[in-house]
Amino acid sequence: MSLRNFETSFVTGQPLRMLLLEHDEAVVRRVIHTLVEHGYSVHADVASSMEEFLGRLRDARYRLVVADAEGPSWKDTDILGLLTALPQETPCIVLTGTLNEGAAVRWIDHGADDFVYKDRMGRLALAVRRVLREQRLLDDRQRAEAERERLIEKLQASLAEVTRLQGLLPVCIRCKRVRDTGGDWTRIESFIEQHSEARISPSLCPVCAGSSATGLWN
Q1: For residue range 134-187, what is the model confidence (pLDDT) as tens digits?
Q2: Are residues 55 and 117 in the same domain?
């Protein structure tokens, strides 16, 4: 999917579970109102201290974290430790009330995805839209990589089985089951279908058909 298609995939009412580190109730209301106004269905947990924030982070998973750069019990430098504590897949946007370019650079270097000035709260929705889109693209890439690894493993297993089949194939002389590479014995019909494109069609050869007919009349 192209970036353009991904960007336009937003739909009104899209759920957003977020964790907000903020001591000022007025700022909390502004953050939630801004995101709701831009179409998100927001479920926000609010922490007013760093300890409460870390506790909530341990107990639940969030799509997004929004953190005030400074509060009564923490400073902008504490945000660096906060970013380190975040799960890798959780994007974080820092709110700041002052222009501190040095702090902003440190936040970004330590994993913050963006920062928004409190007097320009209208930009928050755009920042959220962007970081969530980037996270979805990253998730898609990771899923594609995992699928690639799975297919490689499957191919390697198939190649190993083909190599083995070029030699001797262990077949039970009584029940005709076949031993696979894992040491399990399976019906030869299942073995053929598992390791080839062939599908078993139950039938009788002329010899067996003749024997069956003779047995019926005897």
Answers
A1: 877 776 776 777 777 776 677 667 666 666 555 566 778 778 788 877 778 888
A2: yes
What's this model's pTM, rounded to 2 decimal places?
Answer: 0.61
Residue 147 corresponds to which tokens in the numbers above? 């699928």
Decide: 33 and 51 in contact? Cβ < 8 Å: no
Q: For residue 218, is it within any domain?
A: no
Count of domains observed in the chain: 2
Are the beta carbons of 96 and 124 closer than 8 angstroms?
Answer: no
- List CB contacts of 142: < 8 A, sequence separation 6 or more: none
Tell me the pLDDT tens digit for each residue of 74-121: 888 888 888 888 887 789 999 998 767 788 888 888 888 898 999 898
> 170 and 179 in contact (C-beta within 8 Å)?
yes
Q: Residue 192: give the domain boundaries.
A: 168-201
Whether 38 and 125 have beta carbons less than 8 Å apart is answered as yes
Domain of residue 69, CATH code: 3.40.50.2300
